[in-house]
Amino acid sequence: MSNEVEVKTTDFYEVIRDRHSVRTYDPTYKLSGEEIRSLLEEAILAPSSSNLQPWRFLVIQDQELKEKLLPIANNQQQVVQASAVIAVLADLEGFKQGQLIYGRSVEQGFMPEEVLSGYVARITGYYSEQPERYRDTALIDAGLISMQLMLAAKARGLDTVPMGGYDSEKFVEAFNIPSNLKPVILLPVGKAVGEGRKSVRLTVDEVTTWETF
């Protein structure tokens, strides 16, 4: 049975202060596909370089598939306890979506039609010749949307943990990930059991240099 998930707070400062990485979840708490879709709709408002939106998601809810993922994720139990695991993937060929994205911008009146063809050609040509640069760009954008996804979840009273501790090659093989998609983060989403683990932060003065090094 699905639990209704609504925004619990619109206080941004409360959301960023209360978000912690959670590794223990209530396995009886289930999110519906529509609730996850609503969460992703908030996440995809994140910014991306040239608005190319190279993020892609693989949503894993089926319990058998989560069990399949468990050893790939070094037997971290949040993978099977959470309501869903959202894999954030970077599309290394995302720049090829320029015609689609900017075409819609023209339709919405956000871009002059006479600009479209030249802009698409420049973007496509630039990144086609420098795939390593686009890879770096797509990974940054995947990080941006991952953070937005975690904050959107917290605003709904949900909990998450970004996971880099998994075998990406085995993940690609087990879940038939296309060759143009690079796994970035596994993101379990659900209801915490107890509080998330508190942590400390370096001070602003310890991480900030003003003007120049």
From TrEMBL:
Pfam families: Nitroreductase. The keyword Lyase does not apply. GO terms for molecular function: oxidoreductase activity. InterPro entries: Nitroreductase, Nitroreductase-like. It comes from the Bacteria. Keywords: Oxidoreductase. Residues 16-191 form the Nitroreductase domain. The keyword Oxidoreductase applies. Belongs to the nitroreductase family. This is Nitroreductase family protein. It comes from Paenibacillus roseus.
